[in-house]
Amino acid sequence: MEQNYENAIATLNTLQSNYSVLQDSIQSRHKNDSKHTSDTVKFLKRIGITMEKLDLLPVIHVSGTKGKGTTCAMVESILRFNGYRTGFFSSPHLVSVTERIRLDGQPISKDRFAEHFWKIYNMLFAAQEREADMPSYFGFLTLLALNVFIGSVDVAVIEVGIGGRYDCTNVLRNTPTVGITSLGLEHTQLLGETLEAIAWQKAGIVKQGSDVFVAEQPAECIAVIESECRLKNAKLHTVPSRLQQYRWTKIPTMVDNCCPEMEINTSLAIQIATNWIRRTRPHILPFDDKLLIPEKIVEGVNCYFWPGRLQIIPCEGKRTIFLDGAHTPDSVAVCARWFQTKSASEHKRLLVFNSTGDRDALSLLSTLARTISFDAAFFTPNLAFTSSSTNFDTVNHNFPLDLQIQRCEKYHSHWVNHLKQASGFVHNSVKSVFDYIDNNYPACDEPCDILITGSIHLLGATLTALRMEDRVLS
């Protein structure tokens, strides 16, 4: 087999899927919680990365429920605009796996991805002690990202996958700057059913002596994080919740037109990034005033871009696509308010929705229906085209298709029968949805605003179906 990018993706997709890993973790919960991190240590050793070598990688580590990717992307942008060579590891991707591993703000090239992939895969495959003694899909990408970053960047911004304490990324031991975004209930079957349990998992990334920056949190979450910080002799910082609390040398473009949740993410990113700068290049910030923000920081804030989060894409004719990967009750509420504000009330308003995992999708739909009057809703799996023509680079989570279809039918029934909404439809792919829209809402004749939400994976399928892959970069 030729060791190129296409075959790398095909081989990557043979590893244990994230969905399968989650199911196994739920079934064996509490029996061997640290398996993901201990396995990662084992696999790192097999590819020649000792823990001592890993400790030399300059890392910022971020966990949380809402806004992790946004916060990390803004931290990376701020540091890049201040002269740092940056690495950024995130998940999931929208269209291409290469989006998960970014160097200086750009996805790693396919050639470089393939080079690192086959080097690591061949070493791990040769070192197997038994059949299937290989990392999971996410675990492998974690190894690949660390391998790319070591010796290549001034700082690596690492976003936690799920939870924190037992996540693959928590193999990192030397994390002087840590961030925890807003917390809420998520993955409760795995992480716990209370906010305190969630906070305990997220705070597990705190290390000895870390500066820990947190967004405003419920009191019970703060209490858990404070306890973890005391155990680790770490210093806890709660960031300002409003951008107006800062003193700007230049006003960011978002200050006067920013939802509260985005203000919190921005404030958190600023504090994380400035802490790193003060630790590593104090001459850039020669003053101690943490509320005085210099112009280079503002440039990083203004130029940050994170696709699929409150993103608007004008299309041909009078059609506009609204993308937001909201998948928790709080984030969907934010998404609904955003769409209600940005969408013109006289336009046709359409919803395309799917949700995966153990999320309360019916609650998400109720929030959307309560906030927005939709003319029609479409429920579809996270599939761009029919399964026979799927682009395997878009595989993210491997939720079984039959299960997704069953759930879409359930969402449709809830939408029409319980929420009493008119015009709900189930389709087998995103392309099928937009074929229907093309036939019934001609873009050239009728202004139409289309909200895609409920799953980040659905956004990737939409971009692929509409041939808008370039929108993940600009």
Throw out a few tags for this protein:
474 residues; alpha/beta; eight-stranded mixed β-sheet; globular
End-to-end gap: 34 Å
Number of helices: 17
> Roughly how many Å is the radius of gyration?
22 Å
Average pLDDT, rounded to a whole number, is 89
Helix content: 40-55%
Q: List segments where confidence is low: pLDDT < 50 over at least 5 consecutive residues.
A: none
For the biggest β-sheet, the strand order reads 4-3-2-5-1-6-7-8
**What proportion strand?**
5-15%
Structural class: alpha/beta
The 3D shape can be described as globular
Largest sheet: 8 strands, mixed
Count of beta strands: 16
Tell me what you see in this structure.
This protein is of the alpha/beta class. Helices cover 42% and strands 13% of the residues. The chain contains 17 helices and 16 strands. The chain has helices at 5-12, 18-27, 35-46, 51-55, 68-81, 110-126, 137-149, 188-191, 195-202, 219-231, 260-280, 295-303, 329-342, 361-371, 401-418, 430-440, 456-465, and strands spanning 59-63, 86-89, 101-103, 106-107, 155-159, 177-180, 211-214, 235-238, 247-248, 292-293, 311-314, 319-323, 348-353, 376-379, 424-426, 448-453. It has an eight-stranded mixed β-sheet with strand order 4-3-2-5-1-6-7-8, sandwiched between helices. Helix 5 (68-81) packs across helix 11 (260-280), helix 5 (68-81) crosses helix 12 (295-303) and helix 13 runs parallel beside helix 14. The longest helix is centred in the middle third of the chain and has 21 residues, at 260-280. It starts with a helix and ends in a 9-residue tail after the last helix. The model has no long low-confidence stretch (mean pLDDT 89).
